[in-house]
């Protein structure tokens, strides 16, 4: 299955940026001592859960954080920021990420309300009611734009750990 043209173009741009950095002798984040938390979803982190970005999104967001000097590891869409009552700073530039959907929810019309509603089934292992999904023959690839939490007004800054302070702590040294 070929990638959608827009997704392939964004991947090509990422590869070209990496090639340009290599040719100019610019060290990658793993060569430069750049240390940060893995990129994660802002909304989930504020709910006390961590949902990390994986694969190409992980690489793309780490490189963007280093390039733009973002120290916050959290990222959010415009819509998620609105849900939080926060606001993206004027002029902020977002980063494109990919979302691959391999299943879709099973929906049926409720005879009482005449509206489409999610179908639920009982999970045999847990005995709990869970949403029912059907596997797609081909995944759906979606494109989203995310903003670093440091570009968002109305949220608390992420608490960062200082590596030099940690290494000086006697309880952590050997």
From TrEMBL:
Q: Which domain of life is it from?
A: Bacteria
Domain called N-terminal: residue spans: 9-147
Q: Pfam families from the entry? A: ArdcN
Q: Enumerate the InterPro entries for this protein.
A: ArdC_N
- What protein does this entry describe? N-terminal domain-containing protein
Q: What is the lineage of its organism?
A: Bacteria, Bacillati, Bacillota, Negativicutes, Selenomonadales
